[in-house]
Amino acid sequence: MARFWLADFYGVSPQALTTEEVLWDGEGKRRAELIELEALLHPELATERTLKGLDNQNTWNQGNTPWDLSGAALRLAARQRLGLLAFLEWAATGHEWVGDDEVIASRADFARRCASDIKLALRFSIRPGMSNIQILHQLLSQLGIKFSKRSVREQGKHQWCYRLDQAHWEKLAAILQRRSKRRHRLALEEATADLPLGLTSSVPGGDQSSSSKSLSGSSLEERAYAHDSDVEERQEWAIKDSAESSADIPQSPTAISRLGQPSSPHRHP
Predict the structure, then answer these.
(1) Which of 16, 49, 141, 143 has the greatest CB tally within 10 Å of its CB?
(2) Residue 191 in contact with residue 238, Cβ under 8 Å?
C-alpha cells in the first residue's frame, strides 16, 4: 500500500518505482517540500487544501480548533510577501547571486523585519548573525530547492557565487508537471462524467490535449520540464552545474518564457 501511495504522488506506476526514488523521497520529506512548492506555483491549491481541512473538521463535528487547521494559505501568503516566486523565476533563467546582491539583501532584510511573523507562518527562526544567503536559502530549502556554487574573485575579494542546481530543479519540475497534468485530466473527467454521449466535445476544454496546454502551458514547472525533455532527445549539450519591492527582479510571467533556454551563467548587476 505504501508503494502505491508513493507512486501515486510522483505520478508513476508502482512497477516503475525504483529503490533510488524511494530513498530520494526521504520517508516523505521530499513530498512535503514538493507540496509547498506546488502551492507557490499554483496558489489555488493552497486555498483548496485549507478549505478541505475545514470541511473535514465539520464532518468530524469536533469544532474548528486552530491547531488542526491547514496552514497552507498562511504559508503561501508569507512566501508571496517575501517574493520567493519572483526570485525563483529570476534564478531559473540562469542568474547567479552572491550575498551582498540587492536581489538577496532586500529579501533578507525584509525577512529580518518580519522575523516573528515568519516564525509563526513558516516555523523558521531567524537568528542574530545569520547571513543574507543563509536566510534566503533556508526559506527556499523548505520548497525542496537546492543550489550549486562556485568560487569567484571580484576586486580582489573571494566569495561564493550561487545558482539553482539545474538537474535537481528539473527533476522537481518534471514531477510537478506530471501532477499538474493529472489534476487537469481528473477535472476534465469529472466535468464530463454526467454528460450524454456526443456532448463531451462541447464542454470547454473538452479536447484533453489542448486543455492541458491552455491550463498549464505558462507554468514554471512545465517550462523546465520541456527543457529537460529537449536535453534527453537532442543530447547536444549537458546540464551545468524585497521583498516584492525589489525592482530588479521581473515580476511578470515574461521571466518564465526564457526558462529552459541554454545560456551561460550571468550575474545580477
Answers:
(1) 143
(2) no
C-alpha distances in angstroms, 54 versus 49, 77, 224?
A: 9, 18, 34
Q: Which residues of 217-251 are buried (b: 16+ CB within 10 A; e: fewer)?
A: eebbbbbbbbbbeebeeeeeeeeeebbbebeebee
Contact 220, 259 (CB under 8 A): yes
Q: Which residue has the cell 539583501?
A: 105
- The rounded radius of gyration (Å) of the Cα atoms in the chain is 21
Whole-prediction pTM? 0.71
Chain CA centroid to CA 226, Å: 16
Q: Hey, is 260 helix, strand or coil? A: coil
Per-residue cell: 241 = 552545474
